[in-house]
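[[Sequence with tokens]]
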Amino acid sequence: MSEIIVVTSGKGGVGKTTTTANLGVGFAARGKKVVLIDTDTGLRNLDLLLGLENRIMYDLIDVTEGRVPYKKALVRHKRHESLYLLPTSQTKDKSAVNSQQMNSLCNELIKDFDYVIIDCPAGIEQGFQTAISAADTAVVVTIPEISAVRDADKIIGELGRAEKDNIKLIVNRIRPDMVKKGDMLTMDDIDEILSIDCIGQIPDDELVVTSTNRGEPVITNPVSSAGKAYKNIVGRLCGENIPFMEIVPEGFFAKVKKIFKM
């Protein structure tokens, strides 16, 4: 059964597009047929993370405006033959695609793909509303910082108002040293604030940066702790019961709880 997943965040720069790329490669490595849709129109980066920036001929706007069929705009990944990218435009803005167009496109894509994964723009403006419209599952990405978690809380509220009830959480860039010193939120803190099912805890890993710069998602790197975490996330999304890696000790950050109770 096909599934449409939107990857979203309230705050930019928390690893949303990185997560989208790694999920796509992870599902494809399991033999699934996957299409990634970049809906961050005007600020696309998913093509760079996949190493496909030089192979783009058409984009999402060309498809939704009827200039080309979607199959003509798809870019196949160089190493994973069952993974495709539908890039967006670098010159249009996020109002160029509406929810009706996105729903129509996704209804076509699920006939041919096991997973449709949508890379959503950060924030809650029109681009967000368009990107989430067709989704069966929403994956919210955040980092263990007060502002990012508060923005994630806002996103979860907006997803609820859009009647999206299958919402999952990924916490990125966890630094054990900072957690131990009380300078970064723990998973207990985040769970209490957001109260949604967490499917991924990703340690801060410099290999993410080097892999991104090479256009090779870190999930393919056998020595990367972040790559292993992404593999585990893919397994959980496939319904497997996979225990979380030991990253940081559990703890309490009372200051943050007070902020969210104000």
Summary: The chain has one domain: 3-259. The longest strand covers residues 167-174. The domain at 3-259 is CATH 3.40.50.300 (Rossmann fold).
